[in-house]
Design brief:
This protein is mainly alpha-helical and 168 residues long. It folds into 2 domains: 83 residues, RNA polymerase sigma factor, region 2, helix turn helix motif (Rna Polymerase Sigma Factor, Chain: A, Orthogonal Bundle), CATH 1.10.1740.10; 54 residues, Winged helix-like DNA-binding domain superfamily/Winged helix DNA-binding domain (Arc Repressor Mutant, subunit A, Orthogonal Bundle), CATH 1.10.10. It is built from 8 helices and no strands. Helix 1 packs antiparallel against helix 2, helix 2 crosses helix 3 and helix 7 crosses helix 8. 18% of the residues are buried.
Length: 168
């Protein structure tokens, strides 16, 4: 309760987010499903959309048009998920392809102990580099995951890459 005897800002935000969810979840889910094509991905995008909306409400955002605001958030979430999925597909090889590709002969002195280099990173740098380069998350997703600003996430990934290069 605040000084006036009413609910605090956080609980008002939560109540408002719940109202928005009840009113718009079905339509936002259908929108995400059309954009992503898979039910599981659409469910995740729906959850992320309303989580982002809740966070914005907690920061004091007051949307002029709730519908347009929620669908803009959903559109951004879907785009981010599609980009992440695209990056992951480019990086990952099918298991049978990895076995069938011959590796060239290499000088052992040129090989880098990647595991050792990764273990040498500070914990937050390690998490950031794994989220970005292995899981394919966008910088905005990394920032959300680690509870930091977008620029801080970009800087953290840059520092991690620089540390890995120095260890090579």
């Amino acid at each position: 309760m605040d000084a006036s005897g009413g609910a605090s800002g956080g609980s008002r935000s939560a109540a408002r987010a719940e109202e928005l969810y009840v009113a718009y979840a079905r339509n936002v889910f259908a929108f995400c499903l059309r954009r992503l094509g898979a039910r599981e991905d659409a469910e995740d995008a729906l959850q992320t959309t309303f989580l982002n909306a809740f966070r914005a409400l907690e920061r004091g955002v007051v949307p002029l048009s709730e519908t347009a605001w929620l669908f803009a958030i959903a559109q951004n979430v879907c785009l981010t998920r599609r980009r992440s999925a695209s990056r992951r597909r480019r990086v990952e090889l099918p298991s049978d392809a990895a076995e069938s590709v011959a590796s060239p002969e290499r000088d052992g002195a040129l090989l880098v102990d990647l595991g050792g280099a990764l273990r040498g990173l500070p914990a937050r740098q390690l998490v950031a580099i794994v989220l970005r380069d292995w899981r394919g998350l966008a910088y905005a997703e990394i920032a959300d995951e680690l509870g930091m600003s977008l620029s801080a996430a970009e800087t953290l990934v840059h520092r991690a890459r620089r540390s890995l290069r120095a260890a090579a």
